[in-house]
UniProtKB/TrEMBL annotation:
BP terms from Gene Ontology: metabolite repair; nicotinamide nucleotide metabolic process
Name recorded for this polypeptide: Bifunctional NAD(P)H-hydrate repair enzyme
GO MF: ADP-dependent NAD(P)H-hydrate dehydratase activity; ATP binding; metal ion binding; NAD(P)HX epimerase activity
Family membership noted in the UniProt record: In the C-terminal section; belongs to the NnrD/CARKD family. In the N-terminal section; belongs to the NnrE/AIBP family.
Higher taxonomy: Bacteria, Pseudomonadati, Pseudomonadota, Alphaproteobacteria, Acetobacterales
Top-rank taxon: Bacteria
Gene transcribed to yield this protein: nnrD
Transmembrane segments: none
All copies of domain YjeF C-terminal, residue ranges: 213-477
EC assignment: 4.2.1.136, 5.1.99.6
Record-listed (6S)-NADPHX binding positions: 58-62, 122-128, 148, 247, 307, 354, 417
Organism (species): Teichococcus deserti
Amino acid sequence: MNRHALLTPEEMGRADAAAIAAGRSGEALMLAAGRAVAEAVRRRFSPRRTLVLAGPGNNGGDGYVLARLLEQAGWPVAMAPLAPPRPGSDAAAAAARWRGPVVPFAAAEVGRAALVVDALFGAGLSRPLSGDVAQLLRSVRAPLVAVDIPSGVDGATGGILGYAPQAALTVTFFRRKPGHLLLPGRDLCGETVLAEIGLPDTVLEAIAPRAFGNAPGLWRPPLRDSGSHKFSRGHVTIPCGAALPGAARLAAGAARRAGAGLVSLATDDAATAAILRGGEPGLMVTTEAVEHLLEDRRRDPWLLGPGLPPDDATRALLRRVTGAGRMVVADGGALTACAGDPAGLQGAAILTPHAGEFLRVFGDPGDDRLAAARKAADVTGAVILLKGSDSIIAAPDGRAAINHNAPPALATAGSGDVLAGLAAGLLGQGMGAFDAACAAAWLHGDAAQRALAGQPAGSPLLPEDLFPEIGKSLASALPSSP
Ligand SMILES: NC(=O)C1=CN([C@@H]2O[C@H](COP(=O)(O)OP(=O)(O)OC[C@H]3O[C@@H](n4cnc5c(N)ncnc54)[C@H](O)[C@@H]3O)[C@@H](O)[C@H]2O)[C@@H](O)CC1
Ligand SMILES: [K+]
């Protein structure tokens, strides 16, 4: 079953329940979970005075198992329970086996520890942390290891319920949760380790997860066989206004490097055409009217936005191209041209809004950006690529992927034009809209990482710097064995 699947806390609860119903023991799962955390801790930290903060549920139970295993390995460990586990639970059984010191749930104890384990709440967090718990977590100065997820992070959204601590290491089980990949949760997790605890993959069949971590394997880059020719790999057409020819050129360069058969920039302005013709020699520039260009059925897909102003003419162009049955990637000006009117974007294949454009078109996404992106996909019938450090790709059928390989240096002018160009280039080669959007987001992040490799920390990244890396990123995304 898909290793990229992400489980909401509710789905993870169902996975646990299904495994137990199929004969796994809850106690064995808890032992495996505690052992996985102990191993991850011992690999990264030397033995040191450790305090385990334990909540009343199974997350706390994992903490008791971990404490026992660390103590057996010779570590000085103390337990600080927030509340006793529910009698008869697996956590109560784990607590009963703890023979070491139990200390008050207090800042003085936290201050004495050289490592703090947060085993307070995991998947079962249902309301904001109380003031006392938040205050204690705020007092932690030592490195903090989170069991499953830092307490206070909402596993479904990555949002914070009241307060959540910064972890150096988070160990989660079976499958990651959206909150491990969505911000701010992802940053609070520190290094995230995914551990197998003996849950069989078959439990996922009934759950049928709908969210995924974005990576090759979730999609396949287009393969070029010897029979393919330039028209079978798409003819990406990018209309370009007079104001921003650079944006359209960046998008076109990216579409070519994604493997598009042909890429042409279309402008009705002679001066703009002259500027565009001074660009890459392989890039075609046409001054023919859009009506004529649309007569050529092979011109597909169209990228509308980079280099277009957010005005009524752009809106009309969008309607004309979608009306002609062409695949459209809508970005920049084409999105803002539909501010407050998502219906204006119906018929497009992929929309690539940043946070500001999303707000203008769809309204405030609120705390749950994943749900907001899915709703926007449902409303428009288009795949939404909501850009950010944790870009979300959502399809109208409810599938969603979270991208997590984009370095912060990618947040620079022109970067979005490259991303939109990649999406159009891949769409033209026959990838489905969801796959093309996922692949574009991943390639964009991977190419950026390659461009930055070996550079001093904090080096700037120009959108053009991605160009020489895109081919390598594509090659690395091909399955290693068929
Ligand atoms: N079989 C299983 O269920 C397994 C679960 N595992 C662990 O179990 C965890 C989930 O266990 P639970 O479902 O017991 O959930 P938690 O351990 O997160 O805690 C749930 C309990 O905390 C209470 N609670 C929720 N939010 C609170 C708040 N803000 N303030 C005070 N109390 C609050 C709830 O009412 C409930 O009693 C996972 O995160 C993981 O660490 C692992 O042991 C692997 C196997
Ligand atoms: K936790």
